[in-house]
Design a protein that fits this description.
The chain is mainly alpha-helical and 109 residues long. Helix content is 57%, strand content 0%. The protein is globular, with a radius of gyration of 16 Å.
């Protein structure tokens, strides 16, 4: 969801057309549409501090993005933790193939 004054950090004009097509195809699925709607609602309800964190997480160069946002990286890491907690509370983890508690690696492998 774009808002006035939002900037895209890390967006490139040379994005792979194959990758763009795969994302486009997936976003047309029922799960893709549901995720898009849930994310729009979720991000739209976030305070500005956490929306800035979302832009920072999407950036290819997080150091440059943090500087452009005028925030220290430690503040953004703290916000990322808060963002993750809110996403779990909003049940967005249901879209991922991971559990809430990581499984330790199998030493036998």
């Amino acid at each position: 969801m774009r808002r006035a004054g939002d900037q895209d950090f890390g967006a490139t004009a040379t994005e792979s057309s194959l990758e763009a097509q795969a994302v486009s195809d997936w976003s047309r699925t029922e799960d893709g549409c549901s995720l898009r709607l849930d994310l729009e609602r979720f991000v739209g309800a976030l305070p500005m501090r956490l929306r800035r964190c979302c832009r920072w997480l999407l950036a290819e160069n997080r150091v440059a993005a943090a500087a452009a946002l005028g925030l220290h990286r430690s503040s953004l890491y703290e916000a990322a933790h808060d963002l993750k907690q809110q996403a779990i509370e909003a049940s967005l983890h249901l879209y991922l193939d991971t559990s809430l508690t990581p499984t330790p690696p199998d030493p036998a492998r």
